[in-house]
Amino acid sequence: MASEGYVSEIQISGQNDAVETVVRHVLRDILGLSEIQVAGFDRDTELFGALPELDSMAVAGLLTEIEDRLGILIEDDEVDGELFENFGNLVDFAHAKYQTKTAA
Amino acid sequence: MIASYRFDGRDELCLKTGPDNGPALLILPPLYDEANRVRHLMVETARALADRGVSSLIPDLPGCNESLAPLDGASISLWKAALISCASQLGPVSHIAALRGGCLLDDALDDTPGALPRWRLAPVKGAQLLRTMLRTRIASDREAGVTSSSAALMEDARCKGIELAGNPLSATMVRELDCAVPAGADALRLVRFAGDPLECDGRIPGAPLWLRAEPAHDPAMARAMASDIAAWMHR
């Protein structure tokens, strides 16, 4: 039987930008974007407020999915408007959480 | 065709497709909002299975879809009991295919643990589904100027139940969902998407449509699921 979850996606790809790729892929899956569209996201790409599909339900799903794929835990008080202001903020946050986890 | 099964004093609907003779595949869609997002996919998969000679059942769980039962009376154990009624009235069921939260129910028909062969795509823990729903509640509380936390909401919900993302969950449901995990199985085929690097028993093209903010359908994915399931059942 194969193991479950995405936790080792990072270990398998082993690239520096693996965390960013995971965040990109979660956005792709939630917003229904193509690989090319989501590859066009840069640090300044605005998220919450700029993408109508990204409502509070979608944000909730996005956080749980990032947690699952990176094997991290996001606390309630870490989630604020700033986090979803742009793609760069979200990636930085995921990076920081992932590093805390691997350092532990 | 739309069949029905009797459970808890009500008729619950069940989509029945494929040849009328022989055992059927029980299809268990995801739970709550995720079920709505993949309804089209599930029905198209059942139709594609019928084209491949496979009979299948997609039952309404009490409180869900067309069911008139109150959702706040539902629990994981009640849903499993409903599946037993459905299988005994509309079955026999020989195999089970489940997606996401449906995998939390796919041991319902086992006489001995792990007995029925099952096919799983993207199984999820109940606690993870609760977590997402709690987040929508925290976000709406925040918009209303109320500061809430998952821990405090859960503590209350375990005793009194809670409404999350428009779903009234009983205290029993909260407690059962919180610790529900996909059961171990003797004959399990775990399937993943083609781009997923992780280990699995089979791969299909497609995308996690249950995550989509705007529901969408993927006919190729429905056909791929049906082909994989049919080949697995005929093995």
Task: Write a structural description.
The complex is a heterodimer of chains A (104) and B (235). Chain A has 104 residues and is mostly helical. Chain A has five helices and no strands. Chain A is globular. The model of chain A is unreliable at 1-15 (pLDDT under 50). By secondary structure, chain B is α/β, with parallel strands linked by helices. Chain B folds into two domains: 2-124 and 182-233, Rossmann fold (3-Layer(aba) Sandwich); 126-180, no CATH class. Helix content of chain B is 37%, strand content 21%. In chain B, helix 2 (39-51) crosses helix 7, helix 4 crosses helix 6 and helix 5 crosses helix 6. Chain B starts with a strand and ends with a helix. In chain B, 47% of the residues are buried. The model of chain B has no long low-confidence stretch (mean pLDDT 94). The A-B interface holds A 1-6, 8-9, 12-13, 26, 29-32, 53-61, 63-65, 67-68, 76-77, 79 and B 33, 123, 128, 131-133, 135-136, 138-140, 143, 148-150, 165, 182, 188, 190, 192, 196-201, 207-208, 211-214, 216.
Keywords:
heterodimer, A: about 100 residues, mainly alpha, Non-ribosomal Peptide Synthetase Peptidyl Carrier Protein, Chain A, globular, B: about 240 residues, alpha/beta, Rossmann fold, 2 domains, two-stranded antiparallel sheet, 7 helices
Strands, helices and their partners?
The complex is a heterodimer of chains A (104) and B (235).
Chain A: H1 9-13, H2 18-31, H3 35-39, H4 56-70, H5 87-103
Helix pairs in contact in A: 2-4
Chain B: E1 2-7, E2 10-17, E3 24-28, H1 33-37, H2 39-51, E4 56-59, H3 76-90, E5 93-99, E6 118-121, H4 126-143, H5 150-160, E7 162-164, E8 167-169, H6 171-179, E9 188-193, E10 202-204, H7 219-233
Parallel strand pairs in B: 3-4, 3-5, 5-6, 6-9, 9-10
Antiparallel strand pairs in B: 1-2, 2-4, 7-8
Helix pairs in contact in B: 2-7, 4-6, 5-6
